[in-house]
Amino acid sequence: QSKKNGRDCFCYFSREFSQQAEQALHLTNMLHKALEKEELQLYYQPQVDLESRAIIAAEALLRWHNDEMGWISPAQMIPIAEESGLILPIGQWVLEQVAQQIRSHYETNKEWLPIAVNISVKQFITDDFIEMVMKIIDAHAIPARCLELELTESLMLADVELAVKKMGELHTLGVPLALDDFGTGYTSLAYLKRFPVNKIKLDRAFVTDIHHSKGDAALAKSLVAFTREMEFELIAEGIEEEIQGEYLKAMGFRYGQGYLYSRPLPKEEFSKLFTNQMLTA
Ligand code: C2E
Ligand code: MG
Ligand code: MG
Ligand code: MG
Fold first, then answer.
1. CA quadruple 64, 238, 257, 132: dihedral positive or negative?
2. What residues does the EAL domain cover (predicted)?
3. Hey, which bits of 196-263 come out as E strands?
4. Do 248 and 220 contact (CB within 8 A), yes or no?
């Protein structure tokens, strides 16, 4: 009896496993074609001043729609892009689109809006990453300070020395760096001082319960004190409720991002939102 169960079990898992592998392979093939079929899009989520709610910057977020499969989330797509190496052409496409968007925003509004781009570790560690970024900045004639790169702590797992060196070079070239998802990894505050980043993004995991979790509030407060001392900028991610924004403001946060202010929007809608804000200001 138990032997039979065991065998059923094995079959079940192996079938599930091969289905997963097949699904991944299928997605990889689709993703190969996604760029040329123009299935990828960037959405833009505002980053706001918590006090005035004015848009001070945006984050570009990748969206993929496929006729057969519908919307595929970045959580599904990015790992596949990384494993297949497709993250390199896709990542470059994202940087180009964003540089173009920064330029066209300037043409329309006569002001430079910083836009942040998520960079995967695989992309960051390629030999010509910095050269590629600088070429894009030059080609679109945008200020380096507007193209912000968001990196995660997983970067430090690769090669710390190399990562710090490259971050330093970008810093020198005037390209701002933000540490994304802060608090979810293993990096302590003490670790932070080694990294030449300009900005820390407190992860949504610490924002959600900020109004009733002593621990989350304590972390947020110490982060405010630390970033002030170290002259880092600080922003809170994933603000969904008024009360979270109020608490963060009271703790000394100046900037925030989240559904409360705006969801990520297609570029036309983002532009419209920005224009409306200028008109009503
Ligand atoms: P992230 O960089 O931390 O981006 C923030 C994520 O939180 C986004 O999810 C955003 O839509 C979502 N978000 C924003 N405000 C709220 C909120 O108030 N509540 C909740 N529940 N969620 C909120 P998204 O777009 O699904 O992206 C997920 C992750 O995928 C990103 O996390 C980023 O790590 C990665 N990603 C997205 N676009 C790119 C890209 O172009 N390149 C690379 N390498 N990674 C990307
Ligand atoms: Mg990000
Ligand atoms: Mg994040
Ligand atoms: Mg994230």
1. negative
2. 24-278
3. 199-202, 233-236, 255-256
4. yes
Residues 201-223 pLDDT 10s: 999 999 999 999 999 999 999 99
How far apart CA 144 and CA 175 sit, in angstroms, is: 5
Structure tokens at 103: 């330029």
- Going by the DSSP 8-state scheme, the letter that residue 154 receives in this structure is T
152 φ, ψ to 5°?
Answer: -115, 165
**Closest C-alpha residue for ligand 1 atom 12:** 238
Q: Where are the beta strands (DSSP E) in 29-188?
A: 40-49, 55-66, 70-72, 115-118, 147-151, 177-182
Residue 241 DSSP one-character state: S
- Specify the ligand 1 atom closest to the Cα of 123: 44
| Dist CA 61 CA 44 (whole Å) | 6
Ligand nearest to the CA of 256: 1
**How far, in Å, from the CA of 197 to the mean position of ligand 3?**
15
pTM above 0.80, yes or no: yes
> How much of the chain is in helix, strand and coil states, percent to nearest 5?
55, 20, 30
Q: Per-residue pLDDT tens for 248-274?
A: 999 999 999 999 999 999 999 999 999
The full DSSP string for 77-124 is: HHHHHHHHTTHHHHHHHHHHHHHHHHHHHHHHHSSPPPEEEE--HHHH
Residue 150's beta-bridge partner residues?
A: 118, 178
Cα 256 to averaged position of ligand 2 atoms, centre (Å): 13
Tell me how far apart the alpha carbons of residues 242 and 229 are, in angstroms, rounded to a whole number: 28
Mutate which of 41, 118, 267 to test ligand 1's pocket (most atoms within 8 Å of Cβ)?
118
